[in-house]
Structures are given as structure tokens and as C-alpha cells.
Amino acid sequence: MYALETRQRALALVAQGRSLNSVSKQTGISRYAIRSWQTRIEPISRKAACPRCERVPRPPGATTSYSYLLGLYLGDGCISRQPRGGYALRIACADAWPGLITACREAVRAVRPMNSVCIARKEGCVMVTSCSRHWPCLFPQHGPGKKHERPIVLEGWQQGIVDAHPWEFLRGLIHSDGCRITNWTTRTIGGRPKRYEYPRYFFTNMSADIIRLYTDTLDTVGVEWKPSRQSRKAENISVARKASVLLMDQHIGPKY
Q: Most buried residue, 19, 77, 106, 202, by most Cβ within 10 Å?
């Protein structure tokens, strides 16, 4: 752990136009460390306490980011045990939505700023990954098996965060297992066919509990919804009424 003065001195050398390589050779500090200080200079303790492991457990500090990350986790996330101890949180994000990848990384950093976040590339997607022994503390829905094969119930402190930041929770769910699409139809007006387009939101999940969390939160923010055609074992929730779609557009919008 380098002192703040040491970090400032190294960055001052870089500010003079020196290369990271030359500053590293002069100071004996790795280029990786100097590069990381250009983003954040304040030292962070790797032993920072987990808010859920304190004598009096409390919610994580970045509640807005947590609500969004909770939605992502329930949709396309998983937590797995690491061979050397600890756990890895992985959120699958499609390559087609670079903005989603960035938002996911920022949310993970906000919730656990003392842990690094990396990207593992897969075919058609990336896995935003962060390792910490405390991910199961922050996401107690973690457990063996698939989410739709076991109960998914929020703890009281989690529900409190969702109640305080319902749109962030909905945005996380939509960004994981939802979408905004534009349907169209034609009508004959004055003897001529006229095309009409109308946007709508869909959310699809195989877990009845996660579907309930989604629709209950829609109810709290005044969004009208209805079940749509089911696809295999998954239930599909549609938001199609104009006022509700406008409300969703104000707070969520399409993926990007």
C-alpha cells in the first residue's frame, strides 16, 4: 500500500509528460499501479468491511447502483465459488449493447469499490466479473441450482432499497431479460393502407418469483401490464398501453 504522497509524486511526474515506463523505472512502482492511480488516487483497503457482516448489518452504501445491479443479477447473473476461496459475481451482457456493459461495470464498482471488475469475452456476449467473499452477503438469493427451480425472495433490507429505487430495479431487469420493441400494423384509411407503429416493453423469465417481483414493482410506479403469450416454460410480461410505455421510456428506454 503506497502512501498518498508517493502516489501524488508519481502522478506529478506523469503530468510533466513523462512516460509510465520512465516513471516506473525511476520510482520502482509498477506501471499498472501508476495507471490505476490516474483513475483513483485515494488508497482503498482490500479488507474493507462488508456492510452485511457488521455487528449491526446495514444495506450497501450505493443503494441506487445496488438496486440496478440486483435487477441484472436476478436476470442474467450468477455467483460461483472460486477454487481458492471467495466468490465470483458474473453478469452476462450481450455484445450488441456496449452501453449496458459499461453501466453494469459501473454498478459493480459502486457496490464493491474495493474489488476489481474484469471482462471475460464469450461468443456473442461478455461476462462482467468481480470476485469477493462477500457477494453472497449482498445477494442472499445465491444458492445451488437454477433460479427458477428455487424460491427467490428479497430480504427486508433489499425490498427497502427496491422501494426507494424502483426504476433502477426495473431498469436492471429490463436490461437483463427484457427489451423494448416496435410493433406495427396496417389499417385501411380512405381506401388506402396506412402503417401504424407502436412501441412496447417485454420481460421474460422462467421464475414465477422474479416475475412477481417485476410486476409488483411495476404496480408501485403506476405501469399497467399484462401477461403475454408464453414461450416454452417462460412467462412473458407485456407493457403496451401508451401512457405506461411513455413512463417506461422516461425512466428506462431501449438498450444501447
A: 77
DSSP annotation of 5 reads H
Q: Given the DSSP bridges, would you call strands 226-227 and 235-239 parallel, antiparallel or unpaired?
A: antiparallel
CA distance 160 to 15: 45
pLDDT-flagged residues of the chain (< 50): 44-46
Q: In this structure, is the dihedral angle defined by the CA atoms of residues 175, 81, 49 and 129, taken in order, positive or negative?
A: negative
CA gap 69, 206 in Å, rounded: 19
- C-alpha 15 chain-centroid distance: 34
The answer to whether 148 and 44 have CB atoms below 8 angstroms apart is no
Cβ-Cβ contacts under 8 Å for 58 (sequence gap 6 or more): 51, 52, 157
Alpha carbon distance 125, 121 (integer Å): 6
At residue 135, φ and ψ (nearest 5 deg) are -60, -40
Q: How far apart are CA 174 and CA 96, in angstroms?
A: 15
- What is the reported pLDDT for 213? 97
Statement: the pTM of the whole predicted model exceeds 0.85: no
C-alpha cell at 29: 512502482
* Model confidence pLDDT, tens digit, residues 172-227: 999 999 999 987 777 777 777 777 778 999 999 999 999 999 999 999 999 999 99
